[in-house]
Probable magnesium transporter
Amino acid sequence: MGISKDNFHGLVLAISSSIFIGSSFIVKKQGLKKAGATGTRAGMGGHSYLFEPWWWAGMISMVLGEAANFAAYAFAPAILVTPLGALSIIFSAVLAHFILKEKLHIFGMLGCVLCVVGSTSIVLHAPQERAIESVKEVWHLATEPGFLVYTGLVLIAVALLIFRYVPRYGQTHMIVYVGICSLMGSLTVMGVKAVGIALKLTFSGLNQFIYFQTWLFTVIVVVCCLLQVNYLNKALDTFNTAVISPVYYVMFTTFTILASMIMFKDWDSQDASQIVTELCGFVTILSGTFLLHRTKDMGDNPSPSGESPAFANPDSSPGESPVLTNTNSHGSMNCGPQQQQPQPQPQPQQQHTS
């Protein structure tokens, strides 16, 4: 698609947002680890991280990233802005590899590349932003039957996850926390886009804050953001950052673009080839996420030479393979070469004399 002036502004803001948000994952994780060492972990319901400067530094970085993202939605369509969040995967995964020592396997790196390729494919075939003259137009789109049904399904799913699945599987299944963040995130983006359009029109001389719809969209954004931050903290404190980032990205992107298609009807202006290309981009992103998820345990196992799994020596002998060594915290069970046990010597037989 052609890059208009507004789309270019949205593109620059979206890239800046990815840099800030990707870095915030790492800084916040550092704060959560320090807070967990002296108090109750966030994953166990604690809030000691609120007194940790590192967590607040990460939060500031995330706020800056979200502010840039907020502005990007005012200039460009969601299908252009949202996929660029793939860059935050790269930043968070690489920084986690070097700073948090959460090792990233070579196939995890390939997964990051696939995520970027898929996102690029989507961006290059994204539709143009539709012209909106008033926040009332956005309210009309949000109250159409199709989007009301989507909103109702999202709220029911989030309620089930929070009240039924979080107590049972929150500490063992990453998809529970990430699912809550992603589902609510799709509604957050629609609200952000509405408020962003209102601000853009207001700055151009058409005050939109005289309408109650603008304030209602603002309340929706605040509530959804607070819910997302809470469960994102739990996910970061419980699971590997290098895996949370891409999974959260894929689910958030999928639900956000789905919500945008329903509410703003972005696909109405596209032909079949453009839609198919965007769907292929989604498949590519999902493939990258699968690689990252499947290789996370391979990255966590240290190589015998102390090298990163992405750069470990492939010529190591079979007995030195980390795959054959159980490094669980409950004890070490070495399945590698064992020392040969000495054979018992035969006892001399006693001779009986009559």
